[in-house]
Amino acid sequence: HHMYLTGMGTSVSTFFQTTTVLISVPSVILITSLLISLWGGSIRFNSAMLFATAFIPMFGIGGLTGLPLAFNNMVLHLHDTYYVIGHFHYVVAPGSVFALFAGVYHWFPKHTGRMMSEKLGQWHFWPSLIFMNGIFMPMFFQGMAGFHRRAFDGGRAYEQISSQLFMPGDSFFGGLFNFFFGRAAGTDVHMIDLNLIMSASAWLLALAQIPFIINIFLSVVKGKKVTSDNPWHATTLEWATPTPPPHGNFLTEPVAYRSAYEYSVPGAKEDFLPQFEPGQGGSEAPKPDQTPAHH
Q1: How many Å apart are CA 112 and CA 138, to the nearest integer?
Q2: Which of 9, 33, 82, 168 is in the most buried spot, having the most CB atoms within 10 Å?
Q3: pTM, full prediction
Q4: How far is CA 226 from the centre of its chain?
Q5: Which has the higher per-residue pLDDT, 20 or 208?
Q6: Residue 185 has pLDDT above 70, yes or no
Q7: In terms of DSSP H, where are the helices of 23-80?
Q8: 96, 176 contact by CB (below 8 A)
Q9: Mean pLDDT of 6-26
Q10: Could you tell me which of 236, 123, 231, 241 has the C-alpha nearest to residue 223?
């Protein structure tokens, strides 16, 4: 779809248009499966879960805004604009980074034997969510207005860009904008002024990572010690290792007695049923011979 503006014929561009739309199908299946896996669950919105659930809509926004770029008639206007930057970064920035943060908060107790602070985790999550959107969401508006991605001011020297009004200064949101950025009351807000929101959000997003850094160091030194090898009551095999894991991770070769997603099994002692615990019902597999693992 990056080739639409090179002058290739309509037949070839239609082919690439079709294939570009089709590659979005696996992503739709992924998002759907993630949402369905939450259905009916007893969800605990700790720091790890907040980052994990925030990943879903952020990645979804990135995917959905990519669909217009698949159509050759629309990409004539949107190609090489700020819209493309917003689309791409909603996938790779909040999508990837939020998932990584979720993983850190989730597996930190297994790696260190100590829990991370939930209070600092909340202070990390909410500003990160707000300011991440503050950076990339305005890019969609600027891109649809024709702002070129390779000009630092979007092409302000051109009348088409400099004359575009985003909201009147005497409106409610225009007044808020002028108040927060120290502008004279009643000043109209133009499209180029959205750069103020993006720049401020970028700095504030960087500051929002300070609680995370503090959390890491404080938790390593004096975080609450875990009382078991499986503090989250998870069901997957990695929680069968000692905490923290020794060289080679597992003391014996791990055995998966059942699937990884068995909860509320009749006859089980707990609401969760780990893969690595024998008995207790569920779809248990035949028990293999356990021998010490060699490394």
Answers
A1: 40
A2: 82
A3: 0.83
A4: 27
A5: 208
A6: yes
A7: 24-38, 47-64, 72-78
A8: no
A9: 82
A10: 231
